[in-house]
Design brief:
single chain; alpha/beta; six-stranded parallel β-sheet; 15 helices; 13 strands; 40% helix; globular
């Protein structure tokens, strides 16, 4: 029987296609889906067939212009400042307004399930207060602090021996204290107003979820235990609906094609893109650089063998590419690997250093600093193109990623609501 779903999503750039991929799949199965979302993602929501409900009190960007980004994490000075801004501007600060909008929709529609973005804590509190189950979409590697797992965000390799495990415990403890400093009081204040008990740590809010749906392949993530309510459901490899909006074509010729994709959101990447173009201009390759919605192609000068375009769908570019140069966002990486393409990763921040470790441990590419010179970038591209071991490793990892995408349990998990249909 059809169910009613309420998605409560924020515009995280690369998180939007997989999250809306879940909504689209439910619509195609005949379910009723409403998406609370930002105006910046409105065309993508409508393309799924779901009903868009714009955020009213909660933050709502009109578009993806960097000036309208509430976080502006590229301006933060250090990890502590980033944690503060994330807590105050994305999680705890907007939580009361997010909860208000979600409560209005819950009381209007009484959905069977609320589905949230990973940082939409206000939506989780609202659902819990009304007794509506909620699932959390995690469109990258598993990030929550969990004993036995490598801490998120530090770009660490798996622990080895007692010292490595002690390192992980120390880093996890520190990151949790910092996160709590900027989120816990605000979340507990909201919970109290809605009749819920206090949290000891902010991450505990997610423990109330029915499911953590991890939209990646365990073959890509690092091994480690998951909480009982967490599930790997496979990656969603959908391209954003806007990727087909602009014309694109690779430079002519038969030289190897290098696809350069440094995030669909602004991360102050124009200067790096310029150095990558300079690097490719030194090599017997063809390059196609996509700038995304937040950076005009004219901000990045091309070269005789390098085309710079606003967008090009991965499913069309990757089959003809020999290599992908990327910031290390999860979506770009799993699509490149699913196509069997090795990568050169230049992490900017967020989850990207963690993703780079997962690539290099499997031998599917190399990682270098985003501050690398054009010469160093050129050497890294040449290294990966000249050594077939990288392509072989990418092919092996990509086969596992494709299998998990093609046999995804995402919809199955979202539809398993029989207990809600049972007589009370």
């Amino acid at each position: 029987m059809p169910h009613t779903y309420l998605f409560a999503l924020t515009d995280g750039g690369g998180t939007v296609p997989p999250e809306l991929g879940a909504a689209r799949r439910l619509v195609e199965r005949g379910h009723h889906v409403r998406v609370l979302g930002e105006d910046s993602m409105a065309p993508e929501v409508r393309a799924t067939g779901a009903t868009l409900v714009p955020w009213r009190r909660a933050p709502n960007r009109p578009d993806r212009d960097p000036a309208n980004d509430p976080l502006k994490d590229w301006e933060a000075r250090g990890l502590l400042a980033q944690a503060r801004d994330m807590g105050e501007l994305v999680i705890a600060g907007p939580a009361p307004a997010v909860a208000h909008d979600v409560l209005e929709e819950i009381d209007r529609e009484r959905p069977d399930l609320v589905v949230t973005s990973v940082f939409t804590f206000g939506a989780m509190v609202a659902a819990e207060s009304r007794g509506i189950p909620f699932d959390v979409l995690i469109p990258n590697v598993y990030a929550l602090p969990t004993p036995g797992r490598t801490p998120f965000g530090a770009g660490l390799r798996p622990a080895r021996g007692p010292l490595g495990r002690a390192r992980d415990r120390a880093v996890t403890s520190l990151s949790s204290r910092v996160f709590d400093r900027y989120t816990l009081d605000g979340l507990n204040g909201l919970r109290a107003r809605l009749g819920l008990g206090p949290l000891t740590h902010s991450w505990e809010q997610m423990s109330a979820a029915r499911r953590h749906l991890v939209l990646t392949s365990p073959a890509f993530d690092l091994p480690g235990p998951l909480p009982a309510n967490a599930r790997y459901v496979g990656p969603v490899l959908d391209d954003p609906s806007w990727a087909d909006d602009a014309p694109w074509a690779p430079p002519p010729g038969d030289d190897p094609l290098v696809n350069v994709a440094l995030s669909s959101t602004f991360q102050d990447q124009a200067a790096l893109l310029g150095r990558i173009v300079d690097a490719l201009a030194m090599l017997p390759v063809r390059g196609i650089v996509t700038t995304g919605q937040s950076l005009a192609p004219g901000a990045v000068p091309g070269a005789a063998n390098v085309a710079v375009v606003a967008s090009a769908p991965h499913h069309a570019v990757l089959p003809g590419a020999a290599l992908v140069v990327t910031h290390g966002g999860h979506g770009t990486l799993v699509k490149a690997l699913a196509a069997g393409r090795p990568v050169v990763v230049l992490p900017h921040g967020r989850d990207q250093a963690d993703n780079a470790v997962r690539v290099t441990l499997r031998g599917a590419g190399v990682a270098i600093s985003r501050r690398s010179s054009a010469d160093r970038i050129a050497r890294s591209v040449r290294r990966v193109l000249d050594d077939p071991a990288y392509a072989r490793a990418a092919s092996v990892l990509g086969a596992a990623i494709r299998h998990d995408a093609e046999h995804s349990r995402l919809v199955t998990e979202l539809e398993e609501l029989e207990e809600l249909d049972a007589p009370q």
